Every structure is written in C-alpha cells, then in structure tokens.
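Explain this record to help learners:
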Amino acid sequence: MTRSWWASIASRGAALSAGLLVLGGCAVEISEPGADRSAAPAEEQVSSLPADPSERAVPAPSELGLTRDYLMPPEDGDPSPYALLRDLPDGTTVTYVAFDSASYSLRQFNGKHTALLLSQALLDEVGLARVRQIIDDADLLYKTKAEITGAEPPGTGLLRIAVVDVTCGYGCGYVNAKGIEIVPDAVRGESGINVINHELNHNFDSLSPFLFTNADSAHAWTEVLDDPTHVYLERGGSPRGNGQALTNPEFMTFKRKERLNPYEELPGASWQTCIANQACDPAGGWSAQSLSVHTQSGIALRVFELFGVKQPLRTWVQQARSLVQSRGYVWDSFTPEQRREFLLETLSLGVQANLSCFYDAWSWPVSTSLRASLTAQFGATNPYCSDADADGFTRQKGDCNDTNAAIKPSAVETVNNVDDNCNGVKDDVLVQESGDFPNDQSAAQAVGFPARIRGSSGGDDWDHFSINLASTTTVRFQLRSLDTYAAWFDVYNQSAPGSLDAFWIWSGDVNVSKVTLGPGTWKFSVWGADAGNYELIVQPDATFPVTVPDLWPISWTPDAVSNPSANQYVFPAQSVPGALASVPGLQVRHWVSGYGWVGTTGAGTSFTWSAPAGTDPQELVYRSQFVSSSVLPVWPLSQHRNVSALSWTSQDVGAPAAPGSTSRWVDNFAIEGSGAGITGTADAFRFSWVKVNGDATIVARVVSLENTSASALAGVTIRETLNTNAKHATVAVTPSSTIRFQRRTSSGGSTSSSTATQSETAPRWLKLQRTGSTFQVYRSTDGASWTSVGSATISMSSTVYVGVAATSASGSLTGTAQVDDVAVTGTIVP
C-alpha cells in the first residue's frame, strides 16, 4: 500500500469546518495559562488567573489553530529527506526547512526514536532538563505506538519534532509519515507531550480512510488513539490538565461520553443521516461534520470501555492493517458503506465478540453477509446487548443494573444509596434552577453533596453554590455545556482571595476536575460571557466505580542502580505491588533514556544491562514497568531514576515561609524555592546537595530565574553544614542583572557580598572552586572562557555540602529557577 492516496485525500480535507471544536488530544489537552492548578490537601493557593472570569479569555478553537493540524507527505511518497540521521552529534546546529518552507536555525537533540529541534533562545529559556524530558517521553510514546500498531511510520532515521514559530496548528504532523512541528508554547507548558502524542498518532496513521467516513477521517483515528494511549501505559489521564488525574476507567468513561453522548441524545440519529449525509444538527454548537467525527471515534471508545483497552486496541489495529494488506484494499475505491462495515468487522475481531447488536442500537446498518460472518465466528448473542429486566436499556446503552427495571439511565435519582440513573453517582438529586441561582458569592446557593445542578448563566448573571464537607474529601466537579454555552468554573479558597481551582469549557464541551478539599464550607461558581445552559455534577471521588489501581496517580521509584564493573549496570529486583500479586507471568521491563526498552525480566529478578562502550552514566535515567506475560502494561511506569550512583538530596535550609520543591533530570534542576535568602546571620532557601570530602568544584548554568524580588537568586554554593547560620561560599545570578559572590566566614557571622562589575543576566555559567581554605568564584557566557568574580579564605571542615541553591527572597512567595549542566568534581561521600 503506497502513501499516494493521502495526496488525494488532502484535497477532500483541505477545507475543514470551522465548527470542529474538538480534534483529539491537540484540543482537549491544551490548558489556558494558569488553569493547571491542582490543589494540595489542606493547602490554599492564590490563583494566578484574574479573579473575575470575565477578564479571562476562553480561547476560541480558531485561535488555537484547531481546525486542521495535519499535512500529507510529499506526493512522491518518500518523506525520508525530511527525517534526521542519528550520526549528528547531540546539540548540533542544523538548518531546518519547515512545512511552510520557512527556514530556521535550530539545535538538534537526539533520542532513541525521535529528535527535538529548537532554537538556542528557547533552549536557554526552558533548559536542557525540559528538552531531555520531552525527548524521553516522545521516545516512549513512539515505541508505544509501534507496539500498538505493529508498525512504524514510513521514512528513515529519527522522527524529528521541530519547534517553529508558525505551523498548521498548536502542533502539526504528517499523516502516515515521520515528521512533527510544534509551537514554542507546547515546549514551555506541560501540555506539550500531549500535543506530541496527538501528532504521533497522525504519523502512525495508515488506516483512517479504510475505517472512518468523512473528509476528516484522520481525526476520527487520532480521537481513538490519543487517550487510550495513556490508558494503555496505565497513566490514566486529565481532560484538560486540571486537578488530579482520572483513573483509567474514569478517563475512558469521560472521553466516551464526551464523544458519543451528543449523537445518542439526538432524536432520530442514524448512520445514514448523521455520518454518511452529515445532515444532523447537534446541540452544543458542534458542526454536522464534527458530530460525524466524534460519533465514529466514540463508538470505538465505547467498545474499548466495555471490553478493555490494551489487548483489544492492539488486536483491532493490527487486524485492520493485516486485512487491508491481504485483501489489497485501495482507499479511493472504498465506499462509505465499506468503511462502516470494516470498522464493525475489525472492532469485533479486536474484542472477539459479535458487535452487530451495537450497530443496531445506534441505528447503523449491518449487511446480511457481515452479520452472518460475525455470527459464525462469535455466535449470535452479546451479553452487553441483553435487556434482562425489560426496562428498555441494555448495558451497551448504559444500564448499570440489568436485573432491576427501576435502575436505568432514564430513572429519577432519589436518596437511597443507589445510583438510580446510572450516571456513576449515588444520590445526586437534581437541583434545577427555578427563577435564578444567586448572583452573589456571599449568598451562594447551598446544595447537597453529591448534587446534580442544571441552570443557565452568562453576562452579568453568575451562579454561585456552596457545599459543606465534614472531613477532607477529594471532590469531583464535572461541568457540561448543554448548548452553545462556553464558561468558566471556579472553586474558591476558604479564607484567602482568589480561586483554588478553575477550568473552562467550550460550547457543547464537557470538562472534569478533582480537587482535595478540607472540612468546612466551600463555594464555587459557573459563569459565561454569553448566556447558556449547563449541567454540573458534584460528587465525592470515591463514588465513581474504579478498578485496580484505585489510587491515582500512582507514583513509585525503582531502587538505585549498582555499577559492579565498567559499562555494567544492575537494575535491582522490584517489589511487586500487592494488587499485582495474582497476575500470572508478571514481568518487569526496563527503559533507559536514549536506548529505549533494554530488557525484560521476571518479577523479583534483577537485570544487568551492558551499556555500549563510552556510555556516560551521568547522562542517563532509567524507568521500570510491570507487564503481563504478553508484555501488556499492568502498572504505571515508574518515576525516573538516575543510572549514575551520584545521589543528590534536596531540602529547605532554615525555615522558609513556603516549602520548596526540586525536580531533577540527571544534571538538570527545576527548583521552586522561597525564603528570605542567603543573607545576614541566618539563611532560608532551597538546597540540592552532595557531600564532598576535601577539594571540590561545582559548575552549573543558571538558565532562568523568576523575578520575585531584586534579591532573589539561583546559583551554586558550598556549605560547611546544613545549619541556617553555617559558613558558606555562594555565587548566584539575580533578577537585578548582577552576579553576586556571597560568603559567611564564621558560623553565625554576617554575610559579605560583592557583585560582578558588569550587568549579567541569565543564562550564565557559574563555577565555585574550593582548594583547601581558598574559595574562588568565576562566571562565563559559554562555559569555556571564565572570568573571576572574586575569592575568599574560609576555614571549613574537610567534608562539606556542595550543590545548587535558589530563593525567592520574598516571604511566602515561591520562585522558580532552571539550572542545568551541573557538574561536581571531588571525592563524593555518603
């Protein structure tokens, strides 16, 4: 099968409807700046959003470039000239010609399967740690797509992900060929890897014109693959990056409802009217074409929601690929009816069940020949289509109890500790607006908990509510637009101004967030710039039916690596989580950054990795994952662990008003610190350190520093002890365009400070060297040519603490610093 058919489909898909509001992960994972704020238990946050939602912008889809985010590869069919070869050294500057023919000078950084290209200015802004994390995640996603589909995109060399100023969307990817472009904000924000996930699905798409009907079949494909990829990896998901992540079952149910509910709620909806003819007029502002795309993907998501995701997804895609090739299918002679039939046939093969009754329930025709074939293979009946209690609903149509006719999706919810209406929430009695909900936060409408609220608001009309919690509870808020309503949702702090959590929805959209709230009264509101109707469900998170793992997100870190001989690294045996004790044939597979999956062992067995000669362990991290005997993930991938034995400790020194945090990727640090600073007779700051005996040198580059105060700083330091009044020598960058050399020569003494003679701003390289009792300080713009900042004589004990320091110097306000290429030389001791 060649790729030339995509050149023709390009003309069909060139003018996509501006009403296509949600185009897979690229749309649903983008967060408005400041909207990604999950609440820590018993801790209030001051919102970075304007307190008044009317001052915030709910971005229109057209503003985010969501109407089309893919391109067809060159018509000659070989995109390999656009692929990168791995023999270019890491960090090489290359000339990149973009999809729109613009030329960029970018630096190329390589992974195992992918490469990231970005400008020097953006690299300086985000730091090498962020670049390495993106590459490693992109490599993992690439390998996962290959695992699911059983193939890789055409083209040689690494799949390049180029960061450019303008492309065909927030991200843009070739269909069925290697090549992705993303905009700088996708690298700056946490949504970037979700954009890459979506565009990778375009790269891995060789099947959409055989499975889905309409000009935008490429996005029906990505909608099926985007979110199940996270479920496949046991990551769960978050619809917009808000709040706590959803478990796998929650996530699949949420995404299926988002895609399929509008079709199911449309009177008289059928395949012929809504899909083939695209003549349906759905509620919520969706176009007829967007309804067609979402319905087709929603049908596949419903199947995987009921039958499971991992093996069925993998079998479905690989069976479809095999049949296309063995039957010699050609896309441009494939009729809409054939695509409808092929989707049913391959989904049935994927789950090993006759799904004809699913099509019947959705008013999708099934040919006599296909029905007979599926019956011969899998039998005539399907338990999901049985209506044992004769209430007019099957499990496939949402009946959660097919033995009790009183429990069904159309039932009225009552307070009886039963989920009467099968929406996943017990006793969420409907609170229907009558007249007007309070427009004043101080007079918020008290509602029960749980509750289902239906109302309208917009313009000058706000709707304010409150709930009372007896104890600390994780609360799940789900807001749905019932028409063209686009709105903000806010949960307010109890005793401080601003929002604790906020998210937005587009017209016809649905969004969900989970927030941990302490005891007492909590207020929340719904507001839209224009009037419209909504439904808000408020529930304790524990009421949602979940399966193992039932705590999310699960975070675990493998044990430290040992290095018994040159280039030999032993990954220790991992303790088996109790929930996996009964999984037959349980295995552990091991991932090394830049090398991919390097081996699989039985659970409870260590693994020895023989690294290629010349491998620098300081540049590597590894992760582990529990998998089944058929190598299907059964537990989330672990956190990163450094391959190097060099072990850093991070902590607050002194008593900063707000606790700090540190994340590290090998020699690259992202530090969140508060405190008064390294000054006076006592210090308060964030510190990451190793212990060194005798002479020592630390070199680092301060990439960026948040301007929380003119006295904020980020740099390197050597301290005699971890006491707040310890002797130290510190060199740091400040937001006030200075490099400061600060030192305390006696315990409890005053701090002396001097600055470089010229204006200096991040990014800057810093070096601090101890030789006996002499401390010498240097600065550099390139890490090669050094200029002295000063020196001092300080008598310290033989063993000292050497590391990276940051402080906001602004009371309880934390500030962020990016520091990379940190290198410590000397005798490192435990």
In short: The longest helix spans residues 128-149. The chain has a mean pLDDT of 83. The chain is about 20% helix and 30% strand. The longest strand covers residues 685-705.
